[in-house]
Amino acid sequence: MRRAVWLGLVLLGHGFAHAAPWTVTGEAGAEVDTNVQRVETGPGLDTAPVTSPVMRLGVRADKKDDLFGGGYALHLSDLTRIAGDRDVSVEDVTLLAADLRWLHPLGDRPVAAGFALSAIDAFPLDDEYGARTFRNLGADLVINAHDGEDYRLNLAFGARQFFYKPPTEPLHLFDWSGPAANARLDLTLWQTPGHTRSLELAATMGFELQSYESRAFVNACAPGTVPDPSCTASTDLARRDRASRAGVELTYVGSYIASLGYQLTVIDSNSFGQSFARHRVLASGTMSIGKNFISLLAILQIDQYLDGLLVQADLVHQEFTNIEDENRSSAQIHIARKLSDAWSLEARAAYWRNILGNTMDLAFSRALVYGGVVFTQ
Questions:
Q1: Predicted model pTM
Q2: CATH number for the segment(s) 2-376
Protein backbone atom coordinates (compact mmCIF):
# COMPACT_ATOMS: atom_id res chain seq x y z
CA MET A 1 0.00 0.00 0.00
CA ARG A 2 2.83 2.42 0.85
CA ARG A 3 4.53 1.95 -2.53
CA ALA A 4 1.26 2.35 -4.39
CA VAL A 5 0.44 5.65 -2.66
CA TRP A 6 3.92 7.12 -3.17
CA LEU A 7 4.09 5.95 -6.80
CA GLY A 8 0.66 7.38 -7.55
CA LEU A 9 1.50 10.78 -6.09
CA VAL A 10 4.84 10.94 -7.89
CA LEU A 11 3.28 10.01 -11.24
CA LEU A 12 0.53 12.59 -10.77
CA GLY A 13 3.13 15.24 -9.99
CA HIS A 14 5.12 14.28 -13.10
CA GLY A 15 2.02 14.40 -15.28
CA PHE A 16 1.17 17.91 -14.09
CA ALA A 17 4.66 19.29 -14.56
CA HIS A 18 3.83 21.03 -17.85
CA ALA A 19 0.67 22.80 -16.62
CA ALA A 20 0.63 25.58 -14.00
CA PRO A 21 4.01 26.35 -12.42
CA TRP A 22 5.13 24.94 -9.11
CA THR A 23 5.85 27.02 -6.02
CA VAL A 24 9.05 25.71 -4.46
CA THR A 25 10.39 26.64 -1.02
CA GLY A 26 13.72 25.49 0.39
CA GLU A 27 15.32 26.09 3.76
CA ALA A 28 18.70 25.39 5.34
CA GLY A 29 19.88 26.16 8.83
CA ALA A 30 21.20 24.93 12.15
CA GLU A 31 19.72 24.57 15.60
CA VAL A 32 20.73 23.67 19.15
CA ASP A 33 18.46 21.11 20.82
CA THR A 34 18.79 20.53 24.58
CA ASN A 35 16.90 17.22 24.48
CA VAL A 36 17.54 15.88 21.00
CA GLN A 37 16.32 12.37 21.95
CA ARG A 38 13.18 13.79 23.62
CA VAL A 39 13.51 11.63 26.70
CA GLU A 40 11.52 11.87 29.90
CA THR A 41 13.13 11.64 33.33
CA GLY A 42 11.68 10.35 36.56
CA PRO A 43 11.47 7.43 38.98
CA GLY A 44 12.62 4.16 37.39
CA LEU A 45 13.93 5.78 34.20
CA ASP A 46 17.64 5.58 33.41
CA THR A 47 17.58 8.49 30.96
CA ALA A 48 19.35 11.84 30.68
CA PRO A 49 18.74 14.60 28.08
CA VAL A 50 21.46 15.07 25.44
CA THR A 51 22.23 18.53 24.03
CA SER A 52 23.37 18.56 20.41
CA PRO A 53 23.69 20.89 17.42
CA VAL A 54 21.44 19.82 14.56
CA MET A 55 21.61 20.57 10.84
CA ARG A 56 18.23 21.13 9.23
CA LEU A 57 17.42 20.97 5.49
CA GLY A 58 13.97 21.17 3.96
CA VAL A 59 12.15 21.61 0.66
CA ARG A 60 8.47 21.98 -0.22
CA ALA A 61 6.74 22.04 -3.62
CA ASP A 62 3.12 23.17 -4.07
CA LYS A 63 0.95 23.10 -7.16
CA LYS A 64 -2.67 23.99 -7.94
CA ASP A 65 -4.40 23.61 -11.29
CA ASP A 66 -7.51 22.38 -13.11
CA LEU A 67 -7.93 18.73 -14.09
CA PHE A 68 -10.85 16.68 -15.46
CA GLY A 69 -13.35 19.48 -14.87
CA GLY A 70 -12.27 20.00 -11.27
CA GLY A 71 -9.34 21.48 -9.39
CA TYR A 72 -6.49 19.82 -7.53
CA ALA A 73 -3.87 20.84 -4.98
CA LEU A 74 -0.66 18.84 -4.62
CA HIS A 75 1.89 19.34 -1.85
CA LEU A 76 5.23 17.51 -1.63
CA SER A 77 7.84 18.08 1.08
CA ASP A 78 11.00 16.73 2.64
CA LEU A 79 12.55 17.66 5.99
CA THR A 80 15.92 16.30 7.14
CA ARG A 81 17.48 16.68 10.61
CA ILE A 82 21.07 15.50 11.26
CA ALA A 83 22.50 15.57 14.79
CA GLY A 84 26.00 16.95 15.28
CA ASP A 85 26.64 14.65 18.26
CA ARG A 86 27.38 11.32 16.56
CA ASP A 87 26.65 9.44 19.78
CA VAL A 88 22.97 10.16 19.01
CA SER A 89 23.16 9.62 15.24
CA VAL A 90 19.97 7.57 15.57
CA GLU A 91 18.28 11.01 15.47
CA ASP A 92 19.33 11.46 11.81
CA VAL A 93 15.94 11.25 10.12
CA THR A 94 14.31 12.53 6.94
CA LEU A 95 10.56 12.97 6.62
CA LEU A 96 8.83 12.72 3.24
CA ALA A 97 5.24 13.94 2.97
CA ALA A 98 2.76 14.14 0.11
CA ASP A 99 -0.82 15.38 0.03
CA LEU A 100 -3.15 15.38 -2.98
CA ARG A 101 -6.70 16.77 -3.02
CA TRP A 102 -9.04 16.91 -6.04
CA LEU A 103 -12.54 18.43 -6.03
CA HIS A 104 -15.16 18.61 -8.79
CA PRO A 105 -18.14 21.04 -8.66
CA LEU A 106 -21.57 19.39 -8.62
CA GLY A 107 -23.46 21.33 -11.28
CA ASP A 108 -24.31 24.93 -10.39
CA ARG A 109 -24.62 24.18 -6.71
CA PRO A 110 -21.99 25.53 -4.26
CA VAL A 111 -20.95 21.96 -3.53
CA ALA A 112 -17.94 19.97 -4.71
CA ALA A 113 -16.94 16.34 -4.21
CA GLY A 114 -13.68 14.51 -4.71
CA PHE A 115 -10.92 12.71 -2.87
CA ALA A 116 -7.84 13.29 -0.74
CA LEU A 117 -4.70 11.15 -0.39
CA SER A 118 -1.91 11.65 2.12
CA ALA A 119 1.36 9.87 2.89
CA ILE A 120 3.91 10.70 5.60
CA ASP A 121 7.02 8.53 5.91
CA ALA A 122 9.99 9.08 8.23
CA PHE A 123 13.19 7.31 7.14
CA PRO A 124 16.39 6.66 9.15
CA LEU A 125 19.66 7.97 7.74
CA ASP A 126 22.27 6.34 9.97
CA ASP A 127 20.92 2.96 11.12
CA GLU A 128 18.19 0.45 10.32
CA TYR A 129 15.30 2.06 12.17
CA GLY A 130 16.16 5.58 13.36
CA ALA A 131 14.45 7.34 16.26
CA ARG A 132 10.64 7.38 16.32
CA THR A 133 10.38 6.69 12.58
CA PHE A 134 6.92 5.88 11.28
CA ARG A 135 4.61 5.71 8.28
CA ASN A 136 1.15 7.32 8.24
CA LEU A 137 -1.19 6.84 5.26
CA GLY A 138 -4.67 8.23 4.61
CA ALA A 139 -7.35 8.20 1.91
CA ASP A 140 -10.69 10.06 2.00
CA LEU A 141 -13.77 10.85 -0.01
CA VAL A 142 -14.35 14.60 0.40
CA ILE A 143 -17.42 16.84 0.19
CA ASN A 144 -17.03 20.62 0.28
CA ALA A 145 -19.92 23.11 0.55
CA HIS A 146 -19.64 26.89 0.71
CA ASP A 147 -21.60 30.13 0.68
CA GLY A 148 -19.20 32.68 -0.73
CA GLU A 149 -16.35 33.48 1.64
CA ASP A 150 -18.51 33.55 4.77
CA TYR A 151 -19.26 29.86 5.15
CA ARG A 152 -17.39 26.69 4.25
CA LEU A 153 -18.03 23.11 5.34
CA ASN A 154 -15.66 20.25 4.60
CA LEU A 155 -16.53 16.58 5.24
CA ALA A 156 -14.13 13.66 4.79
CA PHE A 157 -14.77 9.92 5.13
CA GLY A 158 -11.98 7.40 4.65
CA ALA A 159 -9.35 5.25 6.31
CA ARG A 160 -5.98 5.56 8.05
CA GLN A 161 -3.02 3.21 8.48
CA PHE A 162 -0.17 3.78 10.95
CA PHE A 163 3.07 1.78 11.20
CA TYR A 164 5.76 2.40 13.83
CA LYS A 165 9.15 1.31 12.45
CA PRO A 166 11.48 0.73 15.43
CA PRO A 167 11.09 -2.76 16.94
CA THR A 168 8.82 -3.11 19.96
CA GLU A 169 8.12 -5.86 22.49
CA PRO A 170 5.76 -7.41 21.61
CA LEU A 171 6.07 -6.78 17.86
CA HIS A 172 3.82 -4.19 16.15
CA LEU A 173 2.77 -2.75 19.51
CA PHE A 174 1.74 0.63 18.07
CA ASP A 175 0.60 -0.35 14.54
CA TRP A 176 -3.06 0.24 13.72
CA SER A 177 -5.52 0.83 10.89
CA GLY A 178 -9.18 1.72 10.62
CA PRO A 179 -11.92 4.02 9.28
CA ALA A 180 -11.93 7.76 9.91
CA ALA A 181 -14.41 10.64 9.61
CA ASN A 182 -13.63 14.35 9.89
CA ALA A 183 -15.57 17.60 9.60
CA ARG A 184 -14.49 21.26 9.54
CA LEU A 185 -16.72 24.35 9.55
CA ASP A 186 -15.30 27.81 8.81
CA LEU A 187 -17.45 30.90 9.45
CA THR A 188 -16.83 34.61 9.03
CA LEU A 189 -18.54 36.12 12.06
CA TRP A 190 -17.76 39.75 11.28
CA GLN A 191 -15.84 41.87 8.79
CA THR A 192 -15.55 45.50 7.79
CA PRO A 193 -17.04 46.69 4.48
CA GLY A 194 -13.59 46.89 2.94
CA HIS A 195 -12.69 43.40 4.21
CA THR A 196 -9.64 44.86 5.98
CA ARG A 197 -10.59 43.35 9.33
CA SER A 198 -12.51 40.21 10.19
CA LEU A 199 -13.36 37.77 12.94
CA GLU A 200 -13.46 34.11 11.91
CA LEU A 201 -14.49 30.90 13.64
CA ALA A 202 -13.29 27.39 12.80
CA ALA A 203 -14.79 24.25 14.37
CA THR A 204 -13.49 20.71 13.81
CA MET A 205 -14.60 17.21 14.72
CA GLY A 206 -12.99 13.84 14.00
CA PHE A 207 -13.42 10.17 14.81
CA GLU A 208 -11.27 7.08 14.20
CA LEU A 209 -11.75 3.39 14.95
CA GLN A 210 -8.21 2.15 15.55
CA SER A 211 -7.66 -1.61 15.26
CA TYR A 212 -4.24 -2.53 16.63
CA GLU A 213 -2.14 -5.54 15.75
CA SER A 214 -1.16 -5.85 19.43
CA ARG A 215 -3.12 -7.42 22.29
CA ALA A 216 -5.14 -5.58 24.93
CA PHE A 217 -3.91 -5.35 28.55
CA VAL A 218 -5.89 -5.96 31.74
CA ASN A 219 -5.23 -4.87 35.32
CA ALA A 220 -3.53 -7.77 37.13
CA CYS A 221 -2.63 -5.83 40.28
CA ALA A 222 -3.84 -7.16 43.63
CA PRO A 223 -7.25 -5.83 44.71
CA GLY A 224 -6.99 -2.55 46.57
CA THR A 225 -3.46 -1.75 45.40
CA VAL A 226 -2.50 1.29 43.34
CA PRO A 227 -2.42 0.41 39.60
CA ASP A 228 1.10 -0.01 38.26
CA PRO A 229 2.44 -0.91 34.77
CA SER A 230 4.45 -3.78 36.24
CA CYS A 231 1.32 -5.73 37.14
CA THR A 232 -0.65 -5.55 33.92
CA ALA A 233 -1.16 -8.66 31.80
CA SER A 234 -1.74 -9.28 28.11
CA THR A 235 -4.96 -10.91 26.90
CA ASP A 236 -6.03 -12.78 23.77
CA LEU A 237 -8.17 -9.82 22.71
CA ALA A 238 -6.91 -7.47 20.00
CA ARG A 239 -6.57 -3.89 21.15
CA ARG A 240 -9.31 -1.55 19.90
CA ASP A 241 -9.42 2.23 20.44
CA ARG A 242 -12.06 4.84 19.68
CA ALA A 243 -10.35 8.18 19.06
CA SER A 244 -12.58 11.27 19.17
CA ARG A 245 -11.40 14.82 18.53
CA ALA A 246 -13.06 18.23 18.67
CA GLY A 247 -11.72 21.74 18.44
CA VAL A 248 -12.72 25.37 18.09
CA GLU A 249 -10.59 28.38 17.10
CA LEU A 250 -11.39 32.09 16.97
CA THR A 251 -9.17 34.24 14.71
CA TYR A 252 -8.96 38.02 14.31
CA VAL A 253 -7.41 39.33 11.08
CA GLY A 254 -6.45 42.97 10.74
CA SER A 255 -3.19 44.88 11.10
CA TYR A 256 -2.13 41.79 13.02
CA ILE A 257 -3.45 38.21 13.31
CA ALA A 258 -4.43 36.72 16.65
CA SER A 259 -6.11 33.41 17.45
CA LEU A 260 -7.32 31.48 20.47
CA GLY A 261 -8.31 27.83 20.32
CA TYR A 262 -9.20 24.75 22.33
CA GLN A 263 -8.74 21.11 21.31
CA LEU A 264 -10.01 17.97 23.03
CA THR A 265 -8.88 14.43 22.22
CA VAL A 266 -10.40 11.41 23.96
CA ILE A 267 -9.08 7.87 23.47
CA ASP A 268 -11.41 5.13 24.72
CA SER A 269 -9.45 1.86 24.71
CA ASN A 270 -10.23 -1.73 25.69
CA SER A 271 -6.59 -1.97 26.84
CA PHE A 272 -6.05 -1.05 30.49
CA GLY A 273 -3.93 2.05 30.96
CA GLN A 274 -4.35 3.37 27.41
CA SER A 275 -7.53 5.47 27.73
CA PHE A 276 -6.83 9.17 28.11
CA ALA A 277 -8.17 12.68 27.52
CA ARG A 278 -5.97 15.46 26.17
CA HIS A 279 -6.87 19.15 26.59
CA ARG A 280 -4.99 21.78 24.58
CA VAL A 281 -5.42 25.54 24.76
CA LEU A 282 -3.59 27.42 22.00
CA ALA A 283 -2.96 31.16 21.67
CA SER A 284 -1.00 32.71 18.80
CA GLY A 285 -0.30 36.05 17.22
CA THR A 286 1.51 37.37 14.13
CA MET A 287 2.50 40.93 13.30
CA SER A 288 4.79 42.75 10.90
CA ILE A 289 7.33 45.35 11.96
CA GLY A 290 9.04 46.84 8.94
CA LYS A 291 10.49 43.92 6.97
CA ASN A 292 10.19 41.60 9.95
CA PHE A 293 7.36 39.18 10.67
CA ILE A 294 7.04 37.98 14.27
CA SER A 295 4.87 35.05 15.38
CA LEU A 296 4.23 33.90 18.93
CA LEU A 297 2.62 30.60 19.97
CA ALA A 298 1.72 29.33 23.44
CA ILE A 299 0.23 25.88 24.12
CA LEU A 300 -1.07 24.58 27.42
CA GLN A 301 -1.61 20.82 27.34
CA ILE A 302 -3.07 18.66 30.08
CA ASP A 303 -3.22 14.87 29.71
CA GLN A 304 -5.55 12.83 31.93
CA TYR A 305 -5.04 9.07 31.96
CA LEU A 306 -8.47 7.71 32.72
CA ASP A 307 -7.33 4.41 34.26
CA GLY A 308 -5.05 6.25 36.68
CA LEU A 309 -1.76 5.33 35.00
CA LEU A 310 0.06 5.34 31.68
CA VAL A 311 1.32 1.95 30.44
CA GLN A 312 3.44 3.06 27.46
CA ALA A 313 4.84 6.46 28.33
CA ASP A 314 4.06 9.15 25.72
CA LEU A 315 4.96 7.20 22.59
CA VAL A 316 1.59 5.76 21.67
CA HIS A 317 -0.14 9.09 22.29
CA GLN A 318 1.96 11.19 19.93
CA GLU A 319 0.25 12.53 16.80
CA PHE A 320 3.01 11.31 14.44
CA THR A 321 2.48 13.86 11.68
CA ASN A 322 5.97 15.40 11.76
CA ILE A 323 9.41 15.04 13.36
CA GLU A 324 9.52 18.45 15.01
CA ASP A 325 6.87 19.40 17.55
CA GLU A 326 6.30 17.64 20.86
CA ASN A 327 2.91 16.77 22.29
CA ARG A 328 3.65 19.02 25.26
CA SER A 329 2.93 22.44 26.67
CA SER A 330 5.18 24.93 24.93
CA ALA A 331 6.08 28.53 24.17
CA GLN A 332 7.51 29.42 20.76
CA ILE A 333 8.64 32.49 18.81
CA HIS A 334 9.35 32.71 15.09
CA ILE A 335 10.97 35.74 13.41
CA ALA A 336 11.34 36.12 9.63
CA ARG A 337 13.02 38.98 7.77
CA LYS A 338 12.49 39.50 4.06
CA LEU A 339 15.74 40.09 2.16
CA SER A 340 14.25 40.03 -1.36
CA ASP A 341 11.30 38.58 -3.24
CA ALA A 342 12.94 35.14 -3.05
CA TRP A 343 15.18 35.15 0.03
CA SER A 344 14.47 35.58 3.74
CA LEU A 345 16.13 34.90 7.08
CA GLU A 346 14.41 32.94 9.85
CA ALA A 347 15.01 32.48 13.56
CA ARG A 348 13.02 30.32 15.95
CA ALA A 349 13.11 29.52 19.65
CA ALA A 350 10.91 27.07 21.53
CA TYR A 351 10.57 25.48 24.93
CA TRP A 352 8.54 22.36 25.82
CA ARG A 353 7.77 20.77 29.18
CA ASN A 354 5.20 18.72 31.08
CA ILE A 355 2.63 20.81 32.94
CA LEU A 356 -0.04 19.24 35.14
CA GLY A 357 -1.72 15.93 34.25
CA ASN A 358 -1.30 12.55 35.95
CA THR A 359 1.90 11.38 34.23
CA MET A 360 3.37 9.26 37.03
CA ASP A 361 5.85 11.97 38.15
CA LEU A 362 7.58 11.92 34.75
CA ALA A 363 9.40 15.14 33.84
CA PHE A 364 10.15 16.50 30.39
CA SER A 365 12.07 19.59 29.34
CA ARG A 366 13.34 20.60 25.90
CA ALA A 367 14.59 23.91 24.45
CA LEU A 368 15.50 24.66 20.85
CA VAL A 369 17.06 27.66 19.08
CA TYR A 370 17.24 27.79 15.26
CA GLY A 371 18.61 30.12 12.60
CA GLY A 372 18.49 29.66 8.84
CA VAL A 373 17.74 30.96 5.37
CA VAL A 374 14.65 30.36 3.19
CA PHE A 375 14.34 30.54 -0.60
CA THR A 376 10.98 30.69 -2.41
CA GLN A 377 10.49 30.54 -6.16
A1: 0.87
A2: 2.40.160
